[in-house]
Amino acid sequence: MSTRAIYSFLGFPEAPVRHLTLQHDGFPTGAAWRFAVAARSATDPSGFLASFVRSQPAAEPLACPDHGGDAEYRYHVQLRGRRSRHLLVQCWRRYPEGMGWQRRCGPMRLECFLRRFLPGS
What we know:
By secondary structure, the chain is α+β, with helices and mostly antiparallel strands. The protein has helices at 28-41, 48-55, 110-117, and strands at residues 5-12, 15-22, 60-62, 73-80, 86-94, 101-109.
């Protein structure tokens, strides 16, 4: 299914702000699957962005999230904490009625997002 999504990553050591777009499976269960794959190969939360990029070779960079004009979903993944690092995820959906971006969920820890949207995790 061609549900496009924008993924914005904030606060990571190698790129304080990075935006990517993927052209399919952008609904929350698809994003949860992508996040789970990246989380499995990341050694710690700081390495999540690099792991996501490695596991998603079809991801295309965006200079600005506004450049992903036809996306239906948008995700923010933010690295938080100084001593105890963790990831927070937020999700928005753009409905066809022209209401702009509407919050779907979050902010919530990555583990909670995966439990909510990835059955059996």
